Amino acid sequence: MNRALALSSGRAIMIGAVGLAVANPASFAQTATFEGLGYLGSNPFSRARGVSADGNTVVGVTSIPEGGSRAFRWTRTTGMVSLGALDGQSLPSDAFAASADGSVIVGQSGVLPFGFMGFRWTEADGMVGLGHLGTTPSTSATGISADGSVVVGRSVSAAIGNEAYRWTADTGMVGLGPIPGGGGTNARNISADGTVIVGVGTAAGGRAEAWRWTEDTGIVGIGRLPGPPWAPDAGSSSAAAISADNSTIVGLGIGEFGQAEAFKWRVDTGIFGLGIPFFALATEAYGVSENGNIVVGEATIDFDEEWVSAFIDRGDGIELLEDVLRNDFGVDLGTWILAAATGITPDGRVIVGWGHPDGDRYGEIEAFMVVFHCPADLSGSSDPNIIGYGQPDGIIDAADFFYYLDQFVAGNLAVADLTGSSDPNDPAYGVPDGQIDATDFFYFLDIFVVGCP
Predict the structure, then answer these.
(1) How far apart are the C-alpha atoms of 296 and 304, rounded to whole Å?
(2) I want to staple 341 with a disulfide (CB 3.0 to 4.6 A). Which of 135, 232, 296, 330 is the partner?
C-alpha cells in the first residue's frame, strides 16, 4: 500500500493513494460508556431530569446531607452540586432542564407558607423565582430554549386554573390560554430556537390532548391516539418533548386497548403510537433526538409493583436500554437496573436518567449518564472561533477531519495520539504510544473513512 502526504500552511492537505486499505469496520464500531452520577445526602437518592445539548451538564434532584432534596447541576469538572432553594429556605427544589451550554437551568422550588415557584438559575444570579400568573403559589418551569432566554411551564391563573406560560426577561410570565374548545393547559417543553412550545391541555369532553404553540397559531391540538374500537374517541395524548429541528414531538397517549403508550408526532405524518413491546405493559416517551430518529423513555413492566425500565427506540422498535448497552456495546452494568431514560442530547450521544445501582427496585435510586462514542466524531466546526469547535456533533464530515489535522499539527497528544502502528494486524494498532507521527494520521484516515454506525 502506497500513501503520500503533503502538508502546507498547516491546514492544506493533499492525499495521494495508489490504494487505500481500510481496516475492518468492526474495529472502529461506536462504543458506549455508563456511569452513575452519585448523590449528595446519606439517603441514596438522585434522579437526572435533563441534559444540556452539548452533553456536558446534567440536571435533576438529589438528596442532601441536611435531609430532604434539592435541585442539582452535574458537570465532569464539578461533579454534583446543589442549586439550593429559593430565598435559602429549607424546602425541596428540583431541576428539569438546561440551556444548550448548561449555563441556565430551570425547575421549581418550594416556597413558604406552602406551594412551589418556578425558577431560573445562573451562576451569576443563583436561583431566581419567576413569579406566578395569579395569586395561587403553584408554578413550575419545565422547559428552556437553547440560549436560555425563553422559559416555559405551568402556573395557576384566575381565568382557567392550570395555564401554560411563556417567560422572557422582557415580557415576564405570559399565559398562553386554554386549548381551543377546552380548558387548562400545561407547557412541558420548548424548541431549541424558542419558537415552538409543546404541552398538554384539557380538551373538549375532558380528555387530555397534546398541543403545539407558535406565536402565529397559538395553541393547536395535535390529536390523540385512537381509543378502543368500541370508543374510538376515548384516546388521549400528552406532549413531553420536541426535537431540536421542530419536526417531531413525543410523549404519552392512551391508545387502542386503554394502555398508556409512547407516541411520536411528525409534521408529515401526524400522531402515531410507538407500540408496546412484549416485555412491557405500557410505555411513555420523555426525550427525542434532533431529527426525531431516537426516542427515550420508560416502559412499565409491572403495574402492581410500579416497576419501570428505561427504553430506547432507534427507529426500529422499542428496546430496553440495558439490553442495548450490554448486548450491542458490551457495557458492564454490574447490578444496575435502569428504570427511566429522561433526557437525550440532540445528536443522540448522551442519554440521562435514573435507576437502581444495587439491583433492588425497592432500594437505592441514582442518576446515570450514558455516552456513545464515535472515534472519528471530534468537532462540529472546522473554525476555532465558532461554537462547536472541538465538540462532537454526531456527524462525520470535513469539520472532524480539519479539527484532527489542527491537533496533529499542534502536537496535541490527547487528541492526535491514536496508535502505535498503521498495520491493523499489529497489536499496537489503535493503542496510543505517547508520540504523534504518520501512523496516527493514517489511523485517523481509516476511522474517518469507516464513519460511524
Answers:
(1) 23
(2) 296
